[in-house]
Amino acid sequence: MDQPETIPLSRPTFGEEELDALREVLDSGWVAGQGPRGRLLEEAFAELCGVPAVAVANCTAALHLALLGFDIGPGDEVLVADYTYPATGHSVLYTGATPRFVDVRPDTWTIDVDAAAAAIGPRTVGIVAVDTLGQCADLGPLGELAARHGIFLVEDAACSVGATYRGQPSGSLADVACFSLHARKGITSGEGGMLVSPDPERVERARRLSCFGVESAHARQAADGLPVPVFEALGYNYKLSDIQAAVALVQLGRLPDLLAARRRVAAAYLERLADVPGVRLPVVGEERDHTWQTFALTLDPGVSRGAVATELRSVGVQVNIGTFASHRQPVYGPQEPLPVSAGLFERHLAVPMHANLTETDVDRVVDAVRTALARSV
Ligand SMILES: Cc1ncc(COP(=O)(O)O)c(C=O)c1O
Known about the structure:
Elements: H1 16-28, H2 36-49, E1 53-56, H3 59-68, E2 77-81, H4 87-94, E3 98-102, H5 113-119, E4 124-130, H6 139-149, E5 152-156, E6 164-165, E7 168-169, E8 176-180, E9 193-196, H7 200-209, H8 217-221, H9 242-272, E10 279-280, E11 288-289, E12 295-299, H10 305-314, H11 339-347, E13 348-351, H12 359-376
Parallel strand pairs: 2-3, 2-4, 4-5, 5-8
Antiparallel strand pairs: 1-9, 6-7, 6-11, 8-9, 10-12, 12-13
The structure holds pyridoxal-5'-phosphate (PLP).
The site of pyridoxal-5'-phosphate has 14 residues, from α3 and α4.
């Protein structure tokens, strides 16, 4: 019997518009970073989030620049949501500061605000909250906590372009927020990132630091005379190319449709997997809209995740873990145990979630999960 086509965990949505945009940017003569397409993308993100934006190479670079903007370094401690891709913790290490991981809520998997409050000590300079798998953290209480202690709040919004919290767009409620345009995110340019902040000076400083600490070549082109840049601060080459910006601009235009498609898939999974034994379904927290970057099932402790994964793969359904328990990664050295995050790391199983899934795909995933769980419980 023919093996059915594999349903990928994730797949970007591209079409003629992206191809047209690529042709245009290649013909335009400007394909490096911080060019006209980058500017247009920044304006479009600023409109989406209601705060100024700068385009950068990826979300990790955005997080690094965000933290550099608070002048942190060795001796400083930053509270970091534990259940996340390790880019979050790495960005703190890049500055020389120390990440102190904080456990997450068992329902939304976002940083536990009470645990964060309890972890604040004399060396704490800020908090990096993560919009876990596309759902905003408790940005209201976190902002209040940060303000009360005079520390910063950075939102790792890698997975949450288009999410909302209390009706406000993700990216608008922290001192700085960082988005990812990586291939597995809701909109993508292959790789890419965006830093946004209500403080325009913070954004401009990040812009310079993303371009070796100087004004971009494109901006200098427009100046009178022949201005020669002076390298005062240690900057980085974290620019997003205009080729990527051109693709990202088209993708941003597609955002409402792509989000709606993911939300339809999520609604179908939530309805049709509700009665499957051995599995808990994701919960959307109060007053927020999810982007469903990932749809993760939480398997009961008695269920073998490896066996379920093998069975699903054998029928052409790709799966993966949810994300990582940072405190369990050796790069960060010995850490206190964080049981909620550790449990999610061990028991999450991500199933296909993207905007190209058809009803037939969803039927196949639902049937395959039901069958695999029936055998494993
Ligand atoms: C929560 C989180 N933060 C940061 C990153 C890093 O994003 P990028 O690949 O754009 O650097 C990711 C990527 O998966 C992520 O999920």
